[in-house]
Amino acid sequence: MNVLVVGGAGYIGAHTVQALRERGHKVFVYDNLSTGNLEAVPEDIHFFEGDIRDGDFLRHIFAEYLIDAVVHFAACSLVGESMQDPAKYYNNNVVGTLSLLNAMKGAGVEYLLFSSTAAVYGEPTSLPITETALCQPTNVYGRTKLAIEWSLADYAQAYNLKYTALRYFNAAGASLDASIGEAHPVETHLIPLILQAVTKHKALQVFGDDYPTPDGTCIRDYIHVLDLATAHVLALEKMVQTQQSAVYNLGTETGFSVLEIIKMVEQVTGLVVPYTISPRRAGDPARLVASVNKAKQQLGWQLQHSDLQQIISSAWQWHCK
Ligand code: UDP
Questions:
Q1: Which of these ranges, 203-207, 283-287, 310-314, has the smallest mean pLDDT?
Q2: Domain that holds residue 205
Q3: What residue owns the CA closest to ligand 1's atom 16?
Q4: How many whole angstroms separate alpha carbon 111 and alpha carbon 246?
Q5: Does the beta carbon of 105 lie inside 6 Å of ligand 1?
Q6: Model pTM?
Q7: 170 lines ligand 1 (CB under 6 A)
Q8: DSSP symbol at 129
Q9: Which among 141, 155, 163, 211 is annotated as catalytic?
Q10: What is the 193 CA–ligand 1 centroid distance (Å)?
């Protein structure tokens, strides 16, 4: 297929671009480079610098390059910032996606694979979290992603659109050759921050040690970005084959606490992680662990890289490089 990856210069997008190409799809990348890195885009790929709110540009690309499917990563994704500046998040994420959907509708592009998040669930009522769990997001970022999922469902029932929403748990790790990794202009994610703490000798803040978990720190489900990328390829092909829309969780069904992650970083790097205990971060649920039965059974997806040591080793190699 001819696939347009919007947000393809970002961390998960760039890995997915690679996986789609390895599978033989013709890939085009569209990104406004607000947080993406041009170095993460292969040189021999057709790259368009543009914003998803630019419907005319998108329509032109859809028609000119006979795009069959869109994989959509373009979003603002900082939880804290989303609470302080909701306008930015509703504009970029929700208005932007509607612009993309309208351009697809106008051009007759039928398939959309959407990068969603476990943040749509909010505080879970039971674990592991299945796709049928109640969605009660506790922050603006999660609400924008859920609003998009609703618009996808409404467009799909009314127009000629099939969609798949992939709800990621905690993406982590880097490509095995250390060519692509997690580099955000403003870093808020745990594993890159721990690696920075190690190399810059600047204490990590552990947000809360009084949660109802065995060591008091939050538990999350960390999944290797390469396993996420593979799931995108399988989900896209499944959607086209079955002509059905779907929602899948992507995680590992295993949770690790913040202190367990710190210990694993110390084991992998042989260095001490300096940290202090800080107050809880607003909106952080104590535990988030996915059920991924559905993706495994329906997509034939298997985890290949998501052992915690592998995740952290790959992130560390990329960080050193
Ligand atoms: N965390 C932390 N210190 C930091 C950043 C994150 O203790 O400087 C914790 C955070 O409270 C959460 C976990 O690490 O429990 C993962 O946070 P991250 O922001 O990486 O992902 P999230 O789970 O929010 O999507």
A1: 283-287
A2: 190-220+253-288+304-320
A3: 190
A4: 12
A5: no
A6: 0.97
A7: yes
A8: B
A9: 141
A10: 9
Nearest CA to ligand 1 atom 21: 189
Q: Check whether residue 23 and residue 146 sit in a common domain.
A: yes
Question: In which band, very low, low, confident or very high, does the pLDDT at 186 lie, cut at 50, 70 and 90?
Answer: confident
Q: Looking at the structure, do residues 211 and 242 belong to the same domain, yes or no?
A: no
118 and 208 co-located in one domain: no
Which value, to the nearest 10 degrees, does the dihedral of the CA atoms of residues 128, 130, 135, 138 take?
30
The answer to whether residues 169 and 249 touch, using CB atoms and an 8 Å cutoff, is yes
The CA distance from 209 to 204, in Å, is: 13
Name the one residue in this structure whose structure tokens are 């084991």. 267
The CATH number of the domain holding residue 240 is 3.40.50.720
Task: Summarize pLDDT for 22-33 with one digit per residue, the tens.
Answer: 999 999 999 999
190 CB less than 6 Å from ligand 1? yes
CB of 281 closer than 6 A to ligand 1?
Answer: yes
Say yes or no to pLDDT of 34 above 90. Answer: yes
If we measure between CA atoms, which residue out of 77, 79, 62, 55 comes closest to residue 4? 62
* Cα 295 to Cα 236: distance, rounded to the nearest angstrom: 12
- Residue 130 CA to ligand 1 center (angstroms) comes to 21
111 sits in which H/E element: strand 111-117
Q: Active-site residue 141, yes or no?
A: yes
Give the tens place of pLDDT for each residue, 51-65: 999 999 999 999 999
| Rounded distance between C-alpha atoms, residue 197 and residue 203, angstroms | 6
